[in-house]
Specification:
CATH topology of the largest domain: TIM Barrel
Helix content: 25-40%
Protein name: phosphoenolpyruvate--protein phosphotransferase
Strand order of the largest sheet: 9-5-6-7-11-3-2-13
CATH class of the largest domain: Alpha Beta
CATH architecture of the largest domain: Alpha-Beta Barrel
Number of helices: 29
Distance between the termini: 67 Å
Keywords: Cytoplasm, Kinase, Magnesium, Metal-binding, Phosphotransferase system, Pyruvate, Sugar transport, Transferase, Transport
Strand content: 15-25%
Structural class: alpha/beta
Catalytic activity: L-histidyl-[protein] + phosphoenolpyruvate = N(pros)-phospho-L-histidyl-[protein] + pyruvate
Subcellular location: Cytoplasm
Largest sheet: 8 strands, antiparallel
GO molecular function, one term: metal ion binding
Bound molecules: phosphoenolpyruvate, magnesium ion
């Protein structure tokens, strides 16, 4: 049987391959066409039924009377608009006739806010074949767009049908296993794929479409996963999924990392009235205990009509997703945005939804059904025995609380907390900290909880001191009792006397005054006490990062990690798209200098879109500029995109993993070709990262070819100390303040000085205000940090004088260990 699909909107037809989103362009979702819309209403393309409308209104799935399923996705990345610009006029289950209005569109808003208006129209029925396909060019609404032949009856009837099965295995690398964000990504892909996707680990098996089911696998680093895919072309999808899973450990790279538990402090003896806990966010607080007991809100167990209850639950989930999507797309939300994204995946979770629906069908109320379903998942997470997954159980409880409030039409958690109070609870949900009224709490002490929970991430980002795993000590604290929460020393003082309380208050006032002064002065250029100018730049990966960094006082970007452009793509991103992204970042920097690092692929940054042969020792393998020279086509495309996107007045280009001057010459030849092609006469500075001992030692030779040098202390420490930067067991020992690393930095600085080259540092150690005197003393004249410490770094640098810094650097280089250098700086390893 043939199904005729009529254009659901007037516009310009283009091939799916031209859509700037690999999931559609590579037909991972299905085959079809795209339309660049020119009208403000999406219409039904045939007679049939609405299968689903995204809660944000940006996509709709329909089933024709002939059984063909069609997905229409308005624009690219439009889920991030949180529903703004879309007015759904239909709901799941509605019957529609061809030409009925489905979704109203504010095209101006969508065009401005989304990367592209291209609207993929994709057949998702397995085995269906496209007969007629409209050619590229203008089309009117209602004109014939596609003709689809339904799959042969046998194929459609049997679940196996023409569908094949593929099996692949993947090993989870170091990192956090399959946790919320990778699980959300895997489930989104599995849902888009449409076939059956199962992931098994040890004795557990998960439906990959369900985030909670994936989390409940309890898969940890080193686990072997078995991926089974049933559907059209299952092998390609299984391999793709295996790669994503194999890279899931790197997922948290840019997230705010909470401070590590303070083990040293745990070793020092306790004073009377003190007990220990684990540090989740540093800082100091004094204030009255405010206990929050997590009693369950009363709900009805059974009510109403199952159809109505299910509809209420669906509507409440949709409303909650909209609420969370607004936060997820808020550029100022910081880590709360990523957490909201993970929470959306939980609200939309297929397995949770199905379990709740089954309970409702059995007579349960919507609220009771969701609570039961959610608590079962909590138990499953806790029973994995994996601390990091057990920490996520509180996220489920958080969603439950918010969803129940949606169902009841109330505001969740209206507890009034007195200013300055120290919250004491068994555990707390991350959304607790998101309410504006919580901005002035003193600190958080949890009986249970985890140091890497979402609450800990938010607390660290907001400067709220927090201790967890306090056990009975927390339980024994009386409501209203004044305590000192010393998260820096990982302990609680239960009976501070008046002198101690006054001392802590004085200390806190001084810290606040210093932070306020630093922030107030952050926008000013950074000049040392002796008048020497030091540039304080920021490390960036996106335009949002750039806006935040400028607000924190960044004077430019010392390292744009361009890997992020390639990370999520299935094919290397094209020149136009890259140019657009670079232009956005340059604009966000408002004319400040922008150092763009060319693609640093390989080792700890593997890329799905540029796979290379397995290497026994990837950290010493085909990475950085070596990889780029093996794929000059990719480098040439990137160089052209950078030249087109970033104004010459702002631009410097930097090469990663350089070991010798010849690499600069080869890259400059490609850069000159690109400039010639594009008619760019202005010279563009080309610099080298110094992140291998070879480059540090050969810096004088490299500086002949390079316009500037910048230390990558993360890799320099890894290669100098022969310690893998991703090896958790070595985390306490790999330290860029090791004198061997410092001497290499000094050698590189000398090479730059010899040829009058600009010399900076963009590795992680540059983000530590206490390391600034040493780095300046070693010769760095630019420090490129993550954004938040910039005010404190500037404040510190303004107090320094070069002669004292150089003296400090000489003393540090003469020492024998990183511990000794840290002792000299009066600083413990974080
Ligand atoms: C470094 O190695 O210090 C560096 C800045 O590069 P990345 O961390 O991206 O490898
Ligand atoms: Mg590096």
């Amino acid at each position: 049987m043939t199904t005729r699909i009529h254009a659901p909107i007037a516009g310009i037809v283009c091939a799916l391959e031209q859509v700037p989103d690999p999931v559609f362009a590579q037909k991972i979702v299905g085959d079809g066409l795209a339309i660049e819309p020119l009208a403000d209403r999406l219409l039904a393309p045939f007679d049939g039924e609405i299968v689903a409308v995204a809660p944000t209104g940006h996509s709709v799935t329909l089933r024709s009377d002939g059984g063909i399923e069609l997905l229409i996705h308005i624009g690219i990345d439009t889920v991030a608009l949180g529903g703004k610009g879309f007015v759904p006029m239909v709901a799941a289950g509605d019957r529609v006739a061809a030409g009925d209005a489905l979704i109203g569109l504010d095209l101006d808003h969508i065009a401005l806010a989304a990367p592209s208006l291209a609207t993929p129209i994709v057949v998702t029925t397995a085995g269906a074949a496209i007969g007629f396909r409209a050619g590229p060019g203008p089309i009117a609404a209602g004109e014939l767009l596609l003709e689809i032949e339904a799959p042969a009856a046998a194929d459609a009837a049997a679940p196996g049908g023409v569908q094949a099965t593929a099996h692949v295995r993947a090993i989870l690398p170091g990192g956090h296993g399959i946790h919320a964000r990778p699980a959300a990504r895997i489930s989104a892909l599995a849902r888009a794929f449409g076939g059956e996707v199962r992931v098994a680990c040890r004795d557990r098996s998960a439906d990959a479409k369900s985030v909670t089911s994936l989390l409940a696998l309890g898969a940890i680093a080193g686990d072997e996963l078995d991926i089974r895919v049933v559907g059209p072309e299952p092998r390609a999808f299984a391999v793709q999924l295996a790669e994503i899973i194999a890279h899931s450990g790197a997922d948290d790279g840019d997230a705010v990392t909470p401070a590590r538990p303070d083990e040293d402090a745990a070793d020092t003896p306790l004073r009377p009235g003190e007990f220990r806990a684990v540090r989740a966010s540093p800082g100091l607080a004094v204030g009255p205990v405010f206990r929050i007991e997590g009693a369950d809100a009363p709900i009805a167990v059974e009510t109403g009509e199952p159809r109505e209850e299910l509809a209420r639950l669906t509507a409440a989930r949709e409303r909650l997703v909209l609420r969370l999507a607004a936060r997820a797309s808020d550029p100022d939300a910081g880590p709360a945005a990523a957490i909201a994204q993970a929470h959306i995946a939980l609200v939309e979770d297929v397995a949770l939804g199905e379990r709740a629906a089954a309970l409702i069908a059995g007579g349960a109320s919507a609220a009771f059904a969701w609570r039961q379903a959610s608590r079962q998942e909590e138990e499953a997470l806790c029973s994995t025995g994996v601390a990091r997954l057990a920490e996520r159980a509180i996220d489920l409880r958080d969603i439950e609380r918010q969803l129940l409030a949606e169902l009841a039409g109330t505001v969740p958690d209206a507890v009034e907390v007195p200013a300055g109070a120290i919250i004491v609870a068994a555990d707390l949900a991350p959304s607790f900290l998101l309410e504006p009224a919580r901005a002035n709490i003193g600190g958080i002490l949890l009986g249970a909880g985890g140091a890497t929970s979402h609450l800990a991430i938010l607390a660290a980002a907001r400067g709220v001191p927090m201790l967890v795993a306090a056990g009975a000590g927390a339980a024994a604290l009386a409501q209203g009792a004044t305590i000192v929460l010393d998260a820096d020393r990982a302990r609680v003082e239960t009976a501070p006397d008046a002198a101690r309380i006054a001392g802590v208050r004085t200390d806190l006032a001084a810290r606040r005054a210093r932070a306020a002064d630093a922030l107030a002065a952050a926008a000013q250029d950074c000049v040392m006490a002796d008048g020497r100018r030091i540039e304080i730049f920021a490390n960036l990966a996106s335009a949002d990062d750039a806006r935040h960094a400028v607000a924190m006082g960044a004077e430019g970007c010392g390292l744009l990690r361009t890997e992020f452009l390639f990370a999520e793509c299935d094919t290397p991103p094209g020149e136009d798209w890259q140019a657009g992204v670079y232009a956005d970042i340059a604009t966000a920097l408002g004319g400040r200098p922008l150092i763009v690092r060319t693609l640093d692929a390989g080792a700890d940054k593997p890329l799905r879109c540029l796979p290379f042969a397995p290497e026994e020792n990837p950290a010493l393998g085909m990475r950085g500029i070596r990889f780029s020279m093996q794929r000059p086509d990719v480098l040439a495309t990137q160089l052209r995109a950078i030249l087109r996107g970033v104004p010459a007045t702002q631009l410097r280009i930097m090469l990663p993993m350089v070991v010798e001057p010849g690499e600069l010459r080869a890259a400059r030849a490609l850069l000159d070709d690109a400039r010639r092609d594009l008619g760019i006469a202005a010279p563009v500075e080309l610099g080298a990262m110094i992140e291998t001992p070879a480059a540090a030692i050969l810096a004088d030779a490299i500086a002949v070819e390079a316009d500037f040098l910048s230390i990558g202390s993360n890799d320099l420490a890894q290669y100098a100390l022969a310690m893998d930067r991703g090896n958790a067991g070595l985390a306490a020992r790999i330290d860029a303040l090791h004198p061997a690393v410092l001497r290499l930095i000094a050698a590189a600085a000398e090479g730059a000085r010899k040829h009058g080259r600009w010399f900076g540092i963009c590795g992680g150690i540059a983000s530590d205000p206490d390391a600034a005197p040493l780095l300046i003393g070693l010769g760095c004249r630019e420090l490129s940090s993550v954004a938040n410490p910039i005010p404190a770094i500037k404040a510190r640098v303004r107090t320094l004088d070069l002669a004292a810094c150089e003296h400090l650097a000489r003393r540090a280089c003469a020492l024998g260990s990183a511990e000794a250098v840290r002792a000299l700086l009066g600083k413990e390893k974080p």
